C-alpha cells in the first residue's frame, strides 16, 4: 500500500506522539509507507520544524546504521507560563478550602487534560536527566506519576501505606510524616524496582517533605538512585524543609481560613539553576 | 503567520489527538493557520481518511454554524485482537504467580504504553455510550481509569478505603469483599460526583464482583447512574458473580500453583451483544 506525503505526515505524527523517546528507524517508516528513505527524511524535517514551532516538542536524529529518530515531548516556556498561571487561578479558588487549612485538589488530579499538561511540564523539567522509572506514593500522586511517565515513556511504581497480597514480597520502611509527626509505614513491592535504577520521585503536595524523604529512604533499600523530585504544589509554611532540590509547578503561600483567601504563586519551575 | 498544508496536517493531528470528543470549530482552525475554511475542510478529510485507515480513530463532523469536528479515539478490531493476544501472553507468565493463587499485575499497570492501549480499547467499547465520569477504587484501578479518561476526555474519581482530610466531606458505604467475605468500607468525596452523572465503573480485576457492586451502591448514594462496567482482567472461578453486564479484556481461566501454570484467554470484549 502506497502512502501520499499528507497521509505519511499524519500517521507519523500520531506514531511518534505515542512513543516519546523511543528510537524509530528510518527503515521502519520506509517499509511502513513503501517510500524511499529520502522522502521519509524530508517528512521528518517538516515534522521536527512544526513540532518546534508549535511548542509540541522536538525530534532528535541519531545518525548511523542503528540510528533513527526520537520524539522528545517538550513544553515551550510560553505554554508553561500560561498553564501555570491557569493552575494558580484554579487552585486559589476559595471553595477549595477545607477544615484545618487543607485544600481540595482531587478534581484537578482527575481531569485528564490538566494532568497531561502537568505531565508534559514536569517531563520537560527532566528532559535532560537519565530517568529509568518514576516513583510515587498512593493515592493522589498516581495520576501525576502516570502523566509524567507518558511523556518520558518510562514505567512508574506505586508505594503504598500497607502490604497487599497482590504485590508479592515487599520491602517496608518507617518514616515520620511531616504534617502529623507520626511514624508511618511505606511499602514497595520487591520486584517493582531494579538495583541501580535512576528514579524520579513524584508527589502531589509537599510541605515539610516527610513523605518524599520516606521515598528517598526506600530508594536506598533497593540500591536505586535519586534522579530528581517533582511536585505539583509546594507549601510555603514549612518550618524546616527536609528536601531542597526539587521542581514544583505552583507554590501555596498562604491559606487564611478567616477571610477565606488562598495565595498561590508560580513554583520554582522557571527559577532553578 | 501562514501555514503550509503539511504543517497544518501535523499540527491539527496533534491538536485533535490531545482533545478526544472535544468539538473544534472550522473557524478556530481557519484563524489558527490563516487559511480558508475550504482548505481546512480538505485537511480534515485527509486526516479523517488516514485516522480510519490506520486504526487511530475517526473524525465526526457536526454541520451548521455551531458545528465543527470531533476526534473519536477508536481501536480497530485487528489492533484490539493483537493487543489482547499480547496481554494474554504477558499475563500467563509463570513468574507472576503469588502465594494463594494471586497474580502480580502491578508492572502492567505502571507501563504507560500498555495502559494507553488498555484505555483506548475500553474507551472504544463505550464509544457510543454517554459517559460523564469514570469511577474506580484505589489503588490499582487508578491507572486504568486514568487511561480510559484520556481517550474519552472525561474526568475520573477515586473511591478510597478510608476518609482523608484532603477529600473534604465524604459519603461512605459498607460492602462485602468478594474474596475475603469481610465487611469493608468505601469512601468518596461528596463534591466529586454530581447528581445524575452517568458513570463508567472501572477496576483492574473482577472475581465475584464485590468491589464493583460496592461502587454501584455508592452511585445510588449520589443519585448517579451506571453507564457501564469495564475491567482489565476477569477471573473464571467465581461461584456466583454479582455483576453480569461488563466488558473485560482478558479472562483468567485457571491458576495452578502445583505445576505453575496460568491459563488466560480473551475476555468478552468481542463477544458482547
Query: Largest chain-chain contact?
Result: A-B, 58 and 58 residues
Judging from the principal axes of the Cα atoms, what is the shape of chain A? Answer: globular
Strand order of the largest sheet of chain A: 6-5-9-10-11-12
Structural class of the secondary structure composition of chain A? alpha/beta
CATH topology of the largest domain in chain A: Rossmann fold
**Overall helicity of chain A:** 25-40%
Number of contiguous helices of chain A? 8
Main beta sheet of chain A: strand number and arrangement? 6 strands, mixed
What do you see in this structure?
Two copies of one chain form a homodimer. The first copy, chain A, is of the alpha/beta class and 273 residues long. The first copy, chain A, has two domains: 5-73, Arc Repressor Mutant, subunit A (Orthogonal Bundle), CATH 1.10.10; 96-266, Rossmann fold (3-Layer(aba) Sandwich), CATH 3.40.50. The first copy, chain A, is 34% helix and 27% strand. In chain A, the strands form four sheets. In chain A, strands 6-5-9-10-11-12 form a six-stranded mixed sheet, with helices on both faces. In chain A, helix 2 (26-33) crosses helix 3 and helix 6 (112-125) packs across helix 7 (142-152). In chain A, 42% of the residues are buried. The mean pLDDT of chain A is 94. At the A-B interface, helix 1, helix 3, strand 4, helix 6 and helix 7 of A face helix 1, helix 3, strand 4, helix 6 and helix 7 of B.
Amino acid at each position: 500500500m502506497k502512502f501520499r506525503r499528507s497521509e505519511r505526515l499524519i500517521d507519523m505524527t500520531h506514531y511518534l506522539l505515542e512513543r516519546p523517546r523511543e528510537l524509530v528507524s528510518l527503515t521502519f517508516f520506509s517499509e511502513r509507507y513503501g517510500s524511499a528513505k529520502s522522502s521519509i527524511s524530508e517528512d521528518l524535517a517538516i515534522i521536527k520544524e512544526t513540532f518546534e514551532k508549535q511548542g509540541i516538542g522536538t525530534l532528535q536524529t541519531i545518525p548511523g546504521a542503528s540510528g533513527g529518530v526520537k520524539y522528545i515531548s517538550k513544553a515551550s516556556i510560553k505554554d508553561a507560563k500560561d498553564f501555570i498561571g491557569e493552575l494558580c487561578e484554579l487552585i486559589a479558588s476559595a471553595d477549595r478550602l477545607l477544615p484545618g487549612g487543607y485544600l481540595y485538589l482531587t478534581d484537578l488530579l482527575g481531569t485528564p487534560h490538566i494532568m497531561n499538561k502537568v505531565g508534559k511540564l514536569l517531563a520537560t523539567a527532566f528532559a535532560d536527566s537519565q530517568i529509568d522509572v518514576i516513583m510515587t506514593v498512593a493515592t493522589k500522586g498516581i495520576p501525576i506519576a502516570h502523566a509524567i511517565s507518558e511523556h518520558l515513556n518510562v514505567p512508574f511504581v506505586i508505594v503504598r501505606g500497607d502490604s497487599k497480597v497482590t504485590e508479592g514480597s515487599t520491602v517496608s520502611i518507617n518514616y515520620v510524616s511531616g504534617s502529623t509527626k507520626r511514624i508511618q509505614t511505606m511499602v514497595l513491592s520487591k520486584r517493582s524496582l531494579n538495583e541501580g535504577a535512576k528514579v524520579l520521585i513524584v508527589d502531589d503536595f509537599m510541605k515539610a517533605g516527610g513523605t518524599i524523604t520516606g521515598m528517598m529512604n526506600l530508594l536506598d533499600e533497593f540500591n536505586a538512585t535519586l534522579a530528581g523530585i517533582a511536585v505539583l504544589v509546594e507549601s510555603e509554611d514549612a518550618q524546616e524543609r527536609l528536601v531542597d532540590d526539587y521542581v514544583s509547578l505552583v507554590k501555596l503561600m498562604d491559606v487564611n481560613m478567616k477571610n477565606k483567601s488562598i495565595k498561590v504563586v508560580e513554583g520554582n519551575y522557571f527559577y532553578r539553576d
